[in-house]
Amino acid sequence: MTQMEQIIQGAGASAQLLADFRALAEATTMDGAPRHAPRPVLNWLARVIVGREGGPNRDTPLYELCHLVNAIEAGGDGPDRLLLFFLRGSRVTRQACINHIDAALGATGWQRQGFTRSDDGLSIQYGDSEFSINFGRMPFLIALYEFLCGMEDYAFYGELTGIFETMVAEAGTTKGIQQAANAIARRLRRYRGAYLSFAPQNERFEAIYGFLRERNPKLPQAIMDDDILDFWRHHSGGDDFRLYRTVFNAFVKFIQALDVAATGSAAESAGPIGTDRAGGEVDPPDGSVDEPQDNGAYDTYGDWRTPFSVLDEPPAAGIKFFKQKGERAPIELLMEYGPQAIALPRAFLRLDSFGPTQSAITTDLQVKRGAASVRRRISCADCETYPAKQAGFENALVHVQNLQKATLHALNNGGAESNVVALHPSGLDIDASAMGQIADDAARAFRALTRKGFNDAASKDGALKDESYMDGFRVGAGAILSIAAQLEGFLAALSRLDAMEPGLAGQHADDQAVFRAQFTRIYGDAL
Prior knowledge:
This protein has helices at residues 3-10, 15-25, 38-49, 60-74, 81-86, 94-108, 138-154, 157-169, 174-195, 203-215, 225-235, 244-269, 308-311, 324-337, 339-343, 345-367, 371-378, 386-412, 432-448, 470-498, 503-523; strands spanning 115-117, 121-126, 129-134.
């Protein structure tokens, strides 16, 4: 993958954006040479597209382009002046721009006042102000013009033409130039929002990207737990990254953007299926799936939706699988992040243990609860320890496993025709006595749950007397299975952490000191 494609895909570019960019990048002259120089022109254009060019104002390149359009429209009276300059089929170079401009001016000269051609480029006088465009800058702006024209298969071309026509009619002052640049910028922002998974105008993306590049210029690399902590410690003095949870969220979104990029790259490089080896075709998969490797790579994340969202919607919402305070609340944050929490277990523990305390500090300061309360929270003495968190997740898993058994009982008693899958396929090698024991355990688990959808749905013999709950159990079963898998995965990650010195208890003590010191730096002046 080229550097320009890494820039595009690193922001989570969709297939549409990649297609638009490649249409320009792969454009050739009549003799087959590339129209645009990959370096530096197309690398620069890639940064503009994802919003990483232009200094403090990302719209600066658009502003420059509008001035150049104004100048080209004023240079000569031939028809289709913009098309001939910006979209001609020849190689786009500094010298080619000079030759084209000199030919136009040599024929009829400037058609409006205020334009000057110098050895370095063009200058435009707007009343008391002046704007200059170097010839060396023009190949970059031509590439930008061509990309804007081709966005979404030329869907923007007509609107762009109208913007420039209005601008030229009012181009005696910079106001018309500014209005045109702003109109194009609004359209480009909508385009980015539609086709980039991580909105590039978000300064958080830039901050994280720059921070990680300083640590390892060869992005992408696996992001580690301490990357998140160190970033927060360095950036929590400002408003954007004051909360550790804000930083954790931003890193998760950053990782998801890189995940999309990696997936897109793999899809783009996949060979066609077939038997023509000389043609680059590959064998179809044989149906086997390798065991997933927990290597911290970006492709382990993917899209995630908390299983509780399934349980909160009909028909599963009609069954009380979890009590809010004692059963759901302790694992709700873990389910929110799912695989990301498993991949970054210590970073998540920090969030789960110290995040609520930081939120409470913010509330104390807002409601003026008093310095004593804030000092107590800053000390982190009340933060739940990592071993306590581990024990809580273990208890939660026990409840979820009982829910699995109870759900199995409900589905078994609802009739095989109502099940999503066969609960005891004929090919499964389990003897009758074992199946009987499983059924007994499932029935006991079902009867032990005294809540809506369980004790009120069963008759004395254990059969469901109210089958209106059956759809809820059938849909809820998948969510329960997902919750169990996440708990098991996270507990396995905690076991690995605990095996490392100084163990979970020691890691909590170390992190408590870090958060106490950082909270003091952030909030100490408010006391």
